[in-house]
Design brief:
single chain; alpha/beta; Pyruvate-ferredoxin Oxidoreductase, domain 3; 7-stranded mixed sheet; 7 helices; 24% strand
């Protein structure tokens, strides 16, 4: 099989590293060679966090070349725009409608948070799947599981066994939070299965 490349982008505190490690373990346990790499911008909550995950029969590098990511998982809007150049021409963005304004965006700097990022990305020709994962996580009862909601969506876009996903999640999160994490994952899968009827807006 061809190498599958998934780029995760977001900010500190959103569970980017956990999400990418779960994908890497699922792919490995499914019999594939896996390579991953993480990049932390500011070493604090709210700083940029990016993780590359690549799997396949024979993977040579952990880093995704520009224009070669099959899927960009954007847990924060500006981070999705920041790393769009990694996505291939017909790639998919799983776009979480979550705004975390960087500390550099202040009146005294003259910098502004971009408006209508989802429309900008859509106009670039990629397949855009939008979701407000924080609201979904809130409804489930734990704001910390928005990354698992997004992983549920991702799991419907790549060919890895759902049971392996469940097993890996059960080994990757504290047992006291297992039920809510699995609920978030399954909710994401459910929403993704209905997305085609709503123009890829997951509600």
């Amino acid at each position: 099989m061809n190498t599958v490349s998934v780029l995760f982008a977001g900010v500190g505190g959103q569970g980017i590293v956990l999400a990418s490690k779960i994908l890497a373990k699922v792919a490995f346990d499914s019999g594939y060679m896996v390579k991953e790499s993480e990049l932390h911008g500011m070493a604090q909550r709210g700083g940029s966090v990016v993780s590359h995950v690549r799997y396949g029969k024979d993977v040579h590098s952990p880093l995704i070349p520009f224009g070669k990511a099959d899927i960009l998982v954007s847990l924060e809007e500006l981070e999705g725009l920041r790393y769009i150049h990694f996505l291939k021409k017909d790639g998919t963005i799983i776009f979480n409608e979550n705004i975390s304004v960087p500390s550099t965006v202040r009146p005294d700097t003259g910098l502004k948070y971009p408006e209508n990022i989802s429309e900008t990305l859509k106009n670039m020709g990629c397949i855009l799947m939008t979701i407000n994962a924080k609201e979904v996580a809130k409804d489930i009862g734990n704001l910390k599981v928005e990354n698992l909601v997004v992983l549920g969506i991702l799991s419907t876009k790549i060919d890895l066994p759902v049971e392996t996903w469940k097993e890996t999640i059960s080994k990757s999160v504290p047992q006291k939070t297992l039920e809510v994490n699995l609920s978030a994952f399954l909710k994401g899968r459910e929403m993704a299965s209905q997305a085609n009827r709503r123009n890829n807006v997951l509600e």
